[in-house]
From TrEMBL:
Record-given protein name: Serine/threonine-protein kinase
Residue ranges constituting the Cyclic nucleotide-binding domain according to the UniProt record: 322-399
PROSITE patterns according to UniProt: CNMP_BINDING_2, CNMP_BINDING_3, PROTEIN_KINASE_DOM, PROTEIN_KINASE_ST
Top-level lineage group: Bacteria
CDD domains: CAP_ED, STKc_PknB_like
Organism: Lentisphaera araneosa HTCC2155
Annotated keywords: ATP-binding, cGMP, cGMP-binding, Kinase, Nucleotide-binding, Transferase
InterPro entries recorded: cNMP-bd_CS, cNMP-bd_dom, cNMP-bd_dom_sf, Kinase-like_dom_sf, Prot_kinase_dom, RmlC-like_jellyroll, Ser/Thr_kinase_AS
Pfam family, one: cNMP_binding
Length: 558
């Protein structure tokens, strides 16, 4: 029986057209490696600049090397996606018969170069590549890989050096030299495996393939049959690890030590890397799940990673719901603020007590946020918060707020933090009657409101109009900038003490406008540091002193 002849490199390349017309003119050298070169070339037929990858002539005689080179070109050409570099043409050099393929020229830098600039604290890069921007870049890489997986192709060498960033927002996953169909038999040897990178490693039996600093356990062990889509998931996690911590997961110079750590997925937790303690937990959880040693514990698809990133970027968080019974405190004055609350149902009273006096600052209802200033500043709480009835709230943790601030430009984050500090520092000085007695201003406003409508009634020969209880309390509150709850209490006291009277339809008018004026004079006298009693008997009837004293004390307790 006649033995079949082994295919040579010439046989493999016989259907590849040589560039006999010198269509591609080399403009500049973009890079050289052990397996070949990458040049910027002028496409003379279409008048455009492309990148050309050419196999070194000394390797163009090896059938396996030529097959691997053409396989890389064909895989890349099949993957037509905005985040995968497009391949335009394949051919051979008429002089050396070395194969080449042309592709889009990326005028930019690799993600690894960006990471190194960030690690060097380059201010331009720190400003441009916020956490939010880096996660958006990573999402585009996920899109590219999800597409290739849908076509049954795995990359096997995802790392920052193989992600290119263009000047106009382009993100391209490149270097498909280790790519293979998921159901394809693993070749015994692939000389192309380290064709373009120094930190890739391949035994002559084809055992270890991929860049050592990011290896999955199955790659480190050389479990060829275990390398699949979930291997790419691990490599995505390792890339995100480097992108956010600015350190590769396995950063060791000794190959044996590095492989030992990679086999066990043993690396520092992202939060343990220097300067990374403020990384969002939601994102570091994505990294650690993607980089699980056990493949069953990893995300089971690229789409699952993408959804988790999208969930974070959209500001969605798994907030916990808490319910407080009536009279139960949500916030204690002077305590540390590690949480804020969004009222879902019920009502919450914000208050503080001074010298046995209960000062209501605000009533929070559905949709209100409380405790946010202390959460932002880390300073102690400035007031108490108590449930006025059964109340449910969503809990916002400090970490959740920091995660959202990290998405903002640095100047905006600092502006918000600075504003929060200033607001809290001036919280007690915002209004002079928040913590002090509001007796004088409330009675003064009440008197002048009735004086105004009394003047109008006299000029128009009408009866003295009045206000409803709600209208009067709201008007006084608006004029003074106080919570309506405080003015309502004062108005009720004036009604109970018969300074104001309510008719059958609920309209309030002064029982005696002169008595209201006398009460005002009495409160002015009592509130004065140098008490002038000369008005007693003139503006203030002696017979009213006991009544006015009782009213004054009651108003001061509100």
């Amino acid at each position: 029986m006649q033995r079949s002849r082994t295919r040579t490199a010439v046989d493999i390349l016989k259907d590849i057209q040589p560039d006999v017309n010198n269509r591609y003119q080399v403009k500049s050298d973009l890079g050289k490696g052990g397996m070949g070169t990458v040049d910027a070339v002028d496409d003379t037929q279409l008048n455009r600049i492309l990148a050309m990858k050419t196999l070194a002539p000394k390797h163009a005689k090896s059938p396996s090397t030529v097959e691997s080179f053409l396989k890389e070109a064909r895989f890349t050409a099949q993957l037509q996606h905005p985040n995968i570099i497009p391949v335009h043409d394949v051919g051979t050099s008429p002089d050396t018969n070395a194969p080449f393929y042309t592709m889009k020229l990326i005028e930019g830098e690799s993600l690894l170069e960006v990471i190194n600039k960030l690690k060097d604290k380059d201010p331009t890069y720190e400003k441009k590549y916020s956490l939010f921007e880096r996660l958006n870049i990573f999402r585009k890489v996920c899109d590219a890989l999800a597409y290739s997986h849908s076509r049954g192709i795995i990359h096997r060498d995802i790392k920052p050096a193989n992600i290119m960033l263009g000047p106009y927002g382009e993100v391209l996953l490149v270097d498909w030299g280790l790519a293979k169909h998921i159901d394809e038999e693993e070749e015994k040897a692939n000389p192309m495996a380290d064709h373009s990178f120094e930190d890739s490693f391949l035994t002559h039996d084809g055992i270890i393939k991929g860049s050592l600093a990011y290896l999955s356990p199955e790659q480190a062990f050389g479990n060829i049959r275990e390398i699949d889509r979930l291997t790419d998931i691990f490599l995505l996690g390792a890339t995100l690890y480097h992108l956010l911590t600015l350190e590769a997961p396995y950063n060791y110079t000794e190959v044996a030590k590095l492989l030992n750590h990679a086999e066990n997925a043993k690396h520092l937790h992202p939060l343990e890397q220097p300067g990374c303690d403020n990384l969002p937990l939601q994102v570091t959880d994505i990294i650690t799940q993607a980089m699980s040693k056990n493949k069953d514990d990893r995300f089971q698809s690229v789409d699952a990673i993408s959804s988790s990133i999208d969930y974070y970027l959209s500001g969605k968080h798994a907030s916990s719901l808490k319910t407080y019974k009536r009279g139960e405190k949500l916030i204690h004055k002077d305590s540390k603020g590690s949480e804020a609350y969004v009222v879902v149902s019920g009502r919450v009273e914000i208050y503080h007590d001074d010298n046995e006096k209960h000062n209501v600052l605000e009533i929070c209802e559905k949709g209100a946020i409380l405790g946010e200033l202390s959460l932002l500043t880390g300073k102690n709480r400035s007031a108490n918060a108590i449930a006025m009835e059964e109340t449910s709230v969503l809990v916002i943790t400090r970490q959740m707020v920091l995660d959202e601030l990290n998405k903002m430009p640095p100047w905006l984050e600092k502006t918000l933090s600075s504003l929060a500090f200033k607001l809290q520092n001036t919280n007690n000085d915002i209004h002079p009657f928040i913590s002090a007695s509001c007796a004088l201003p409330v009675v003064t406003q009440t008197y002048y409101l009735f004086m105004e409508i009394n003047f109008q009634a006299i000029s128009e020969n009408n009866e003295l109009p009045g206000y409803s209880r709600e209208q009067l309390a709201q008007q006084v509150a608006d004029n003074l900038g106080l919570p309506k709850e405080r003015t309502e209490g004062a108005i009720n006291t004036l009604i109970q003490k018969q300074i104001l009277e309510v008719d059958s339809v609920g309209i309030i008018t002064p029982a005696d406008l002169n008595e209201l004026r006398a009460l005002l004079k009495f409160i002015e006298m009592e509130g004065s540091k140098m008490k002038d009693t000369s008005t007693i008997g003139q503006d203030i009837p002696v017979s009213k002193i006991r009544k006015f004293t009782e009213i004054y004390r009651t108003l001061n307790s509100i």
